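Workshop exercise sheet. Pairs work together: one partner reads the sequence aloud, the other fills in the structure field after running the prediction. Swap roles for the next sheet.
Pair: D.N. / O.F.
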Amino acid sequence: MQKIVPHLWFDKEAKEATEFYVSVFPNSKINNVTTIHNTPSGDSDIVSFELSGQPFMAISAGPFFKFNEAISFMINCKDQAEIDYYWEKLSAVPEAEQCGWLKDKYGLSWQIVPEEMGELMSGPEEKRERVTQAFLKMKKFDIAKLKEAAEKE
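Structure field:
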């Protein structure tokens, strides 16, 4: 059993959202859906699921809490095609896009980043500054432009 499991609170969309997420991520599945009745917000679905092998839980428990940018999930992408894939599938709020961050149709924030970001941000301060200045201008990360900024002298 996974020691730490993220648990997501939805108004009424836990089952719908998990079905969507499972369709986006490979190696994903819904393990169980349980409906409990007579809660303060009516019937509540509790969903256990996995995204790329990472266990999650979700609940439909009413409009009491909303997602915000203080919590996000990072997706490490092997190449630009993978960044483009997740960006296309998940981004639903264009005005929330910045520096590799996006918000999906359920209000959840995601960071879509190249696997090599750590390497791009390592080394001399001047290199880190160039890469930082490059990505501050981006919504979706462009790996070629980040590498170009890292390699400038």
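Discussion prompt: The first strand starts at residue 7 and ends at 10. What would you look at next?
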